[in-house]
Amino acid sequence: MFMSVQKKVLVVDDQEGIRRLLYETCVLLGYDAVTAPSGLEAIKLPKLDEFKAALIDMKMPGLNGIETMNRLQSLYPGLQVALMTGYGEMYPAEEETVNLASCNIIRKPFDLDEIKKFLEIVFR
Fold first, then answer.
1. What domains, with CATH codes, occur in the chain?
2. Within 1-124, where are the H helices?
3. Which residue in 32, 87, 98, 103 has a CA-CA distance of 20 to 30 Å to 80?
């Protein structure tokens, strides 16, 4: 008997509308998506080791996107992250962290094709 490999995506954004849009997009593309409204809520989720991809908003109250990414990747090193930002430029320290982490950046407002491409690469 074959077990199907679930394609699980974590979506972390403090804006409900964006969370919902990304959730629905992931589901329509055939992925199993789980959402969290904050970085703190995300790291409390059970079975995070089953996730291979995460879409994380850069600017959130509490833990920001970089802090959330760092905590998640320290626990689950195989997790591939795309940080989403609506800000034109990042602070130099943020940019350096992103470069060292080799994560993807998706600029808001984003094209859903960017999300699709990121997920296709991760789940290839």
1. 8-122 (3.40.50.2300)
2. 16-28, 39-44, 65-75, 92-101, 112-122
3. 87
Q: What is the torsional sign of CA 87, 88, 94, 100?
A: positive
Q: What token pair was written down for 114?
A: 């960017």
Q: Which two tokens stand for residue 42?
A: 């995300």
pLDDT per residue as tens, the chain (124 positions):
444 457 999 999 999 999 999 999 999 999 999 999 999 999 999 999 899 999 999 999 999 999 999 999 999 999 999 999 876 655 666 666 666 666 888 888 888 999 999 999 999 9
**Which residue in the block uniquely carries the two structure tokens 């490999």?**
5
Rounded to 10 degrees, the C-alpha dihedral 20/22/23/25 comes to: 120
Helix axes 92-101, 65-75, angle to 10 degrees: 20
Task: State the pairing for strand pair 8-12/51-57.
Answer: parallel
